[in-house]
Write a structure and sequence with these properties.
Elements lengths: L11 H14 L7 H4 L6 H12 L10 H14 L3 H6 L6 H12 L7 H6 L49 E2 L4 E2 L5 H10 L21 H11 L8
Antiparallel strand pairs: 1-2
The structure holds a DNA duplex (21 and 21 nucleotides).
Subcellular location: Nucleus
GO molecular function, one term: DNA binding
Main location: nucleus
Length: 230
DNA sequence: AAGTTCCTCAACCGCAGCTGG
DNA sequence: TCCAGCTGCGGTTGAGGAACT
């Protein structure tokens, strides 16, 4: 007899089963949930339900003004990298941010039926999709073995020399460039930004997750040459 | 009051990256 | 090196409630 997995909205009972399982076993064991929690749901559905709705970390309600501001700034830098953006906004999930952006910021007006009729096939607009250039980094490459891998990739202020600590992208195996305050200031001015991300409680200007797209952006036309220090 | 359209957001789908055998 | 399984991500859909006619 084949076991059909349930789809659609979650019941209160299912929520309770999922909560109980995660309280007992912790997050991350998604493959065990359908088996051990007594839930007739696929593991993807369970993970999504927890991360987007049931987790105590999830903040409900409307976005505050500063959250909206941050979303706009980060989207300008990162594009549709919803999980990265959400990672900078405590309590908000990638789904929240994505939904917010698609419904409030980028509402697509539905074309009227008459308008559709009037558009000939040859007049359909062409849309170019620009994606970040994929960059493969060897996991065994470590140019600076004396520096321990850093797993956050956050940009932080260094001591008093005007330069920021080296940081590491991805798995933290490749050293990043070091950016001077002037370089960052120049970048923010060019982009019309006053600040990005969250204030560090020390003396940093900002604390920004630098992913591949941002790396390429900084590395190419916006900042110019970057220093690499050891 | 009833029918229709619009809007929101939870949930699904397909794909890519990672990991371990 | 290949492959299968797992996880996480972004794009999209659709149910259901609100607003409008």
């Amino acid at each position: 007899m084949s076991l059909l997995l349930r789809k659609g909205s979650w019941s209160a009972e299912e929520d309770m089963l999922l909560k109980n399982f995660i309280q007992k076993h912790g997050e991350g064991k998604w493959h065990l949930i359908p088996l051990k929690a007594g839930l007739n749901r696929c593991r993807k559905s369970c993970r999504l339900r927890w991360t987007n709705y049931l987790s105590p970390k999830v903040k409900r309600g409307d976005f505050a003004e500063d959250e909206v501001d941050l979303i706009h700034k980060l989207h300008k830098l990162l594009g549709n990298r919803w999980s990265l953006i959400a990672g900078r906004i405590p309590g908000r999930t990638a789904n929240d941010v994505k939904n917010y952006w698609n419904t409030r910021v980028r509402p697509r007006p539905k074309p009227q039926k008459q308008e559709l009729k009037n558009v000939k096939p040859s007049q359909h607009p062409t849309v170019s999709i620009i994606r970040p250039i994929p960059r493969t980094i060897s996991k065994t490459l470590n140019l600076y073995p004396h520096i321990k891998p850093h797993d956050t990739g956050n940009l932080r202020t260094s001591s008093n020399d005007g330069f920021r600590d080296p940081f590491y992208i991805s798995q933290g195996l490749v050293p990043s460039p070091t950016l001077s305050d002037n370089m960052i200031k120049e970048y923010l001015e060019k982009e019309g930004l006053d600040d990005v991300g969250q204030e560090d409680n020390e003396n940093s200007l900002f604390n920004l997750t630098l992913d591949d797209g941002m790396w390429d952006l900084l590395h190419s036309e916006h900042i110019g040459e970057l220093n690499i220090t050891d």
